[in-house]
Every structure is written in C-alpha cells, then in structure tokens.
Design goal:
two-stranded antiparallel ribbon, 42% helix, globular, mainly alpha, 67 residues
Length: 67
C-alpha cells in the first residue's frame, strides 16, 4: 500500500485534489461542474487547479451531525 504524500502547496492538481478529498477524479469533476467546488486557472495556463482553502471549506460545509 503506497504511503500518502503530504501536500504542502496551496494550489493542487485535479488528481491531487481528488486524493486530498478521498474521492475519485470523476466525482471531483462532477462536483466542480455542479458548482460545489471552485476551480482556479492561473493566467496563460490550461491546468485546472484547486485551492486547498476551498477544499477545506467544502469539507467543513459537508459535515453532518449524528445523534
């Protein structure tokens, strides 16, 4: 079993963001298209990047209370 990498940068790729959230790339693409998660594109690039702060906000707002 591979050891997970610790992400230390602010902007991450689609694959890294999916790994960070523990979901598939396809699910992240769906959430992005639905407007649930914001995507960043830096000027003069085609890369789809995700801000760790936005991913943390998504996690925070996705929590549910049990009990």
């Amino acid at each position: 079993m591979p050891i997970p990498r610790i992400i230390t940068k602010r902007l991450v790729t689609l694959t890294e963001a999916a790994d960070y959230l523990g979901i598939s790339v396809r699910q992240l693409e769906y959430l992005t298209a639905a407007g649930e998660i914001k995507q960043t594109r830096l000027p003069n690039t085609r890369k789809r990047l995700y801000d760790i702060v936005d991913l943390d906000e998504f996690i925070k707002h996705s929590k549910i209370k049990i009990g």
